[in-house]
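Lab manual, section 2.4: Encoding a predicted structure.

Procedure: take the sequence of the chain (342 residues), apply the prediction step described in section 2.3, and record the output as structure tokens. A sample record is shown.
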Amino acid sequence: MKKIFFFLSFVFKIILFISIYNTIHAKNLDKYYDEDNISNYFSGIISLKDNDYANSYKFLKQLGGLEDSHYSYSRSYQFTLLNLGKFNEAFDYAKKLENKKLDNFESNLIIGIFYLKKRQYEKANKYFKKITKLENKEPLQVLLSYSLKNWISFSQINLSEALTLIEDMPNGFESLKTIQKTFAHCYYSSKITEQKFDELINIKKTDLTRFNFFYANYLFKIGKKDKAISVIDKSLKSTPRNLLLNQLNIDLSKNNKAIRNNKFNCKKISNIIAEIFYITSSAFSSQSLYAFSNFYLNIAKFLNEDFVSYDTLYAENLYRMNKTQEARNAYNTIKKKGSIYN
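Recorded output:
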């Protein structure tokens, strides 16, 4: 899996470079733009490249209408909005692009996710289908478009059909296929869900330690608390510093009727899709592509606001971006979520 995501991150680096390079020729696109507007555009793009989203927003917001003649502007502005967590504003801008017939992968994704969050699945499916039909998508965009289109349809089909759709996803993403198949068994309350989780966490060719959480969470919800604790204890022997598992261990050791931290329900399509976006975000973070990482991470956080693990990655990204005060603020919020995080 690491090799796959390294390749994907390399592709995205090239795309980002081309986008930035194209700004050099921005003056040739619209002669009516004065020096101040051109300056704002360059400043906004450079700020985005430097992960300075507040300034990127300040500069790019002043250039409304530039999307009519410069495709890269709309992509940059949408990245800026989501990196700042301005999902409602991003939705409004995406609808604006749609009305102008300037919609793109990001705008259709944002609108579809917005409707998914509101459980308006037919509306969401309309935009996920549009994403699938778009040409010249990068490999990761192809993966996400298939995943979104598949999961939004699962409420209308049976497990066998769902597993077939997952298996028909592009080759090269076998680990992600296995993860999604396991979640599908959980979603449909399959009799072999435990078996599938057990097979997943015992895959040796890639690190899937994180999924011990989802296995234990599932066991707890079906009344097998002792087995859930056993799964976590076994996992912590090999990864004793894992925050997600340690906090779950604390939660399970108390006589709680529900897990208070990192709430996840495999019956909610939005929760599962959030985890798919988290996996994507984590891969980009490992390659120091924080603009891409935070873009997808904020989608995950939007879909499942009760999963503290997403906030920890966001805080780590801020810290690695040298956003010290913002990282400190994020950590101060996280530490209130549980004794391990504190």
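Check your result against the sample. Residues 4-32 have pLDDT under 50 and may be disordered.
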